[in-house]
Sequence to fold (290 residues):
Amino acid sequence: MKHLKSVLVLAIFGMTFSCGTDNDDSQPPSEANLIIKLNFDANQQRLNNLGQPATIPDGNAAQTPTIQKMSANYIEFAPTATTQLGQGEVVFVGEETDAGGTMAIDFQQAIFAGNDDVFLSMPLSEVASGSYEWVRVSLAYQEGDIQLLNNSSEITGTLASFVGYNNYITSFDLNGSAIAVNDDVLQGFWAFEALGFTTQGQAPPGATTVPNPLFATSPVPQGSCVVTGEFSNALTITGNETEDVTVTLSFSVNDSFEWTEVNADGKYEPSAGEQVVDMGLRGLIPMVSN
Fold:
């Protein structure tokens, strides 16, 4: 991959230094940064794998979770609709490991960000100059609140969704409950906590929605969870920027948690045998600001 960069901290600040005599307090301006923020939009259009508007299939139901935090494992800017995955400007690659037997996202080293929080900051000097029309983001993890029905009572619980291609997990904390895995888990692994009780499961392989409007010209591997979005106005990096450039990645969470209905009431009822089938994000709109 061209210009591969592993950026593994939430903020990388440009160095400032003084020059001249000991009495010279002048300092050059700080280096301009590329700042990437995450946003979770409940009203953004709900898309399918081809990036087209999607409805909920007959026999299923869905709800919009309240996402608390998210993690990505890969971010790439693509100049055109025909730029193949990995051939654009890769600005972030998360930690991976083969500790579980195969190459996987290292969950213990993952970076997280909440709604409207900064996920990544890096010097713009490390980003190749050019005009970029698309962004591709390989998602790894999302955590948020959902509603379920249990014995006629509605309960709020927290869902941890592992949507990366493969994930190595030792253990993780879900609302104070420790969940040990110590193995690789494929895309679609989930864990749920409510009232101090936990459960976990696996959505069907390949069922996680990954919108890619460039399916015909620039496909992505199945199971990669590389979501693709188009800038309304191309992101242009000249190499002469003196101010930070902020890219906000707005993800659609509109009815993104989907299950098979046993009782046709639109409420998630696992005790009735209703099964999770999809928890993938439903679209990506990148926005640029200075």
Remarks:
- DSSP finds no helices and 18 strands in the chain.
